[in-house]
Amino acid sequence: MCGIVGYLGNKNTKEILLDGLKELEYRGYDSAGIAVLQNNNFSNYKAVGKLINLEEKTKDFVTNSFAVGIGHTRWATHGKPTELNAHPHLGESSYVVHNGIIENYVSLKNELQSDGVKFLSQTDTEVIVHQFEKNLITAKDTFEAFSQTISQLQGAYAILLVTKGEDETIFFAKHGSPMLMGVNEENEKFFASSDTPLIGHAKEVNYFEDGDYGYVSKNEIIIYSKDKELQKPNFQTISTNRLSSQKNGYRFFMEKEIYEQSDVVSDTLMGRLGENEINFNEIDSTLFDDINEIKLCACGTSYHSALSASYMFERYAKIRCCVEIASEFRYRDPLMCKDTLFVVISQSGETADTLETLKMAKKEGLKTLVICNVDNSSMVRLADACILTRAGIEKGVASTKAFATQVSVFWMLSLYVAKLRDAMDANQLAKQIHLLREIPSSLKISDAIHEKIKRLSKRYLHGHGFFFIGRDIFFPLALEGALKLKEISYLHAEGYPSGEMKHGPIALADPELFTIALLPQHLLYEKSKSNVEELSARDSTICAISAIEFDKADDFIQINECQDYMLEFFEMMIVVQLLSLEISVRLGNDVDMPRNLAKSVTVE
Ligand code: F6R
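# fructose -6-phosphate complex -> structure
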């Protein structure tokens, strides 16, 4: 999701910027760049691919006197990963770096172009620097031009800008994307998207609030709030431990990633939700021409999100949809028809079995699409079209935020296809888009629910197994809950459709069989409840998850009341993820690196 850094001081500016970018490389690594203003002269370097390429390009560049510098590592959203699209972006005499999406860039760009401004890149970011230079012509000073520019931007951003007229100043603004500033006794100033680049350099840091903007120079720190009130920086001491800092105070990466889901799904939705339509600028709607079926293929957690998608494609877009486990599909001589869109889903984009099925589909001449988290991965390079999930790097081996972002993409994609096929009227579509906007709130975690799950977890450390049960789209969620639990607790767990229990599995029911029951209020509640009652009658130990109190359960975890079952899906997803995490912690397991597993399965 891009990382930005900034530095003002006397030390080795190049090294400080590059070291900072190295810490942020996980946020995106399809290109990187720096711009340094020294003695009123700019030096600018950009390179495609990993940071090492930029290091190579800058090896003879020396910075040994006072300078201001900005840097960026990119995860492409607008425009391909090329050197021209890499940041910093140049105007006549200013450079800008940006993390986020400028939603109104097209209208700003059109106006600037009609004024004769020439654009070099395909990015949304470039409008910022040109708009700033346009404002500079009439503004009373540089800061006024910068403030005007910020007020003209819509969307999400963390921005750093440097300009020749002010060669001892860095201008900044933050809204919706992370950014902080650090200082030390030597009067150096540092900026970054997260605190790790500042560790070892800054003593104190100020985390900007949304709407903050201002500038720093050698002796000044000027911060205005969104209400244009001058603010004092709110300095806090920065951690000195890089590893724990990367975990932002959470015990495990998995826990951090569970908590991050609200923010990363906001990124997934960003720029894609219109008033009455879904926008996927990265795909061409002709991809769906002459398509009568969607085939989804994936492994593990990605397979579960594909299963969830099949419910949405059929229900919302009224298109036939089937789901395949990649390792099975490869070897079963499957029939592939040209009117099928072949979709692979993968967090890493490198999973060997899934990649192979993509090759098979391409060979048969099918149109292909990949839903992926890693740009430039093998699947992204191979497929005809790609939608990135924008979850940011996932470090915990047990996948969490990748799943949440995949399901969010599929929800949007099913509505996109629904519109193309006229399968949903405008009112229903607008209602669905309204619901999509609510996902980030449904993913917010209260202390109360986490505490409750932590306490409950001690009762689920033994027994002879777990059944996670749910109906409809809650069945894939049940499968995912069971997978999370087995991966990190090493306890036996299975996901089942609630209505299927009486066809065999219920024979296992006894007090040592734990049933985790997903009971959404807004989807087949009564039917699911009867299935749970059947288990309860056979003395199975029940932990029910629902917005509605359920007295037949031994344990009950209450989620918030939601407007729709899809929002209940995300609320319950958090509960099953946290339950697995807390059981694993109590069992003393390595949560982030469970035994026998690896993050990216590049062998079959
Ligand atoms: C489970 C998990 C795995 C992956 C699977 C596919 O927590 O992470 O089941 O989902 O190995 O990986 P990707 O999505 O990278 O293709």
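# post-check
The domain at 445-604 is CATH 3.40.50.10490 (Rossmann fold).
The chain has a mean pLDDT of 93.
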